[in-house]
Design goal:
The structure is a single chain. The chain is α+β, with helices and mostly antiparallel strands and about 190 residues long. It has 2 domains: about 100 residues, no CATH class; about 35 residues. It is about 35% helix and about 15% strand. Helix 4 crosses helix 5. The termini are far apart.
């Protein structure tokens, strides 16, 4: 775990999981020293436990509510004693939380204009890949693509006619209509 969590303040919604299954969903107020100490203890548990334990953060309060409900359903399934085909206890796998969580301390704030300009220059002049830029700037690749897309001005449709120098449509030349002869001409 990075030390990013030390800079976190305000409300945080934390998911702890053991192996492939959720363990708890916790709401913390990181402005309080007690909650900061609790988070520090969770991070130490994750770092000591040989990757058995994991820790991540819910994206927002709505995701936290959904995740807390899933954790409750998981514990209810475990207590029911049901087993799957392999004989393992049933439960809700951690994959169900994929769209609800993000890495602990993830900075989802937009980058400043100066930082966006630096990203564009590194991409254009130094030819850095999007993956390298995402790693260097600690943002997702999709965010880097949004920054790079913002570099191009939008193209507005021209108000002038595309057919410059061509004649406007003319009416057909008036003429006599000659009826066709019927029968043989012999």
């Amino acid at each position: 775990m990075d030390a990013k969590y030390k800079k976190m303040r305000g409300r945080a919604w934390i998911l702890t999981y053991y192996r492939d299954f959720p363990d708890s969903a916790t709401s913390l107020n990181l402005n309080k020293e007690v909650d900061r100490d609790y988070l520090k203890a969770l991070v130490e548990l994750v770092n000591e436990a040989d990757r058995e334990w994991g820790l991540c953060e819910f994206k927002n309060e709505d995701c936290y509510r959904k995740g807390r409900r899933l954790v409750g359903q998981h514990h209810k399934l475990r207590r029911s004693g049901k087993r799957d085909e392999g004989g393992y206890p049933t439960g809700i796998p951690i994959g169900k939380f994929q769209r609800l969580v993000q890495p602990l301390g993830y900075n989802s704030l937009p980058l400043s204009k100066r930082e966006e300009k630096a990203i564009r220059e590194e991409y254009q002049y130094r030819h850095y890949s999007v993956a390298k830029l995402a790693d260097d700037w600690d943002v997702s690749e999709s965010h880097i693509w949004k920054v790079l897309k913002g570099d191009k001005p939008s193209v507005l449709p021209s108000k002038e006619s595309i057919n410059i120098g061509t004649f406007k449509g003319q009416p057909p030349v008036p003429g006599r209509v000659v009826p066709k002869a019927r029968g043989s001409t012999l």
